[in-house]
Amino acid sequence: MFDTNRWNRLRYSLWAPLYHPFVRVFDGARRTAIAALDLKPGQRLLIVGAGTGADLPFVPDGVAVLATDLTPAMLERARPRLRPGIELRVMDGHALELPDACFDAALLHLIVAVIPDPAACVREAARVLKPGGVLSVFDKFVADDRQPSLFRRAASRVAAVFFTHLDRRFGDILTASGASLVVESDEPVAGGLFRRIRLRKPAA
What we know:
By secondary structure, this protein is of the alpha/beta class. It has a single domain, classed as Vaccinia Virus protein VP39 (Rossmann fold), CATH 3.40.50. The chain is built from six helices and seven strands. It has helices spanning 4-23, 27-35, 72-78, 118-128, 150-162, 170-177, and strands spanning 44-48, 64-69, 86-90, 103-109, 129-140, 182-189, 194-200. It has a seven-stranded mixed sheet with strand order 3-2-1-4-5-7-6.
């Protein structure tokens, strides 16, 4: 059986030296998404698929952060963006080695369209959120009320080998996850190629 995690670790190890300058183009979207979480000092934030730490500069001071990624080479590139209260840890987004209900907020930025089982990733993020916790998702999604075009499906088959899927719909992923999350906002970014979505776990 093909080991997708091993392949992802390999390809992102190769991309690590070039990845951060490329993803800086999304700084504005990251800043807006994180600001909308209204994080407060003393709260705990989980970043799944943190990569080179592009989200870290936009996290308010005083918020404790656990930034995880499958690829050690990516996290090594995140070290220059560390500050007190930020921890880096190698972890598989399909099966987070974390207890239930231990974070106030979580980020899934540019990971849901990449990870082999996106429903498992969303389900795990929901599991570790406290009741009332908030989840930010930012990625390449087809609008839920549209089907991906033939061209987009064909392009996705090629792109998925080296980069990312282009034909996923977040609504399908959320349904498949079975997670108890409520969509609070869903906004198109970059002409609709990307979507910025905020969800909340219902309070107990």
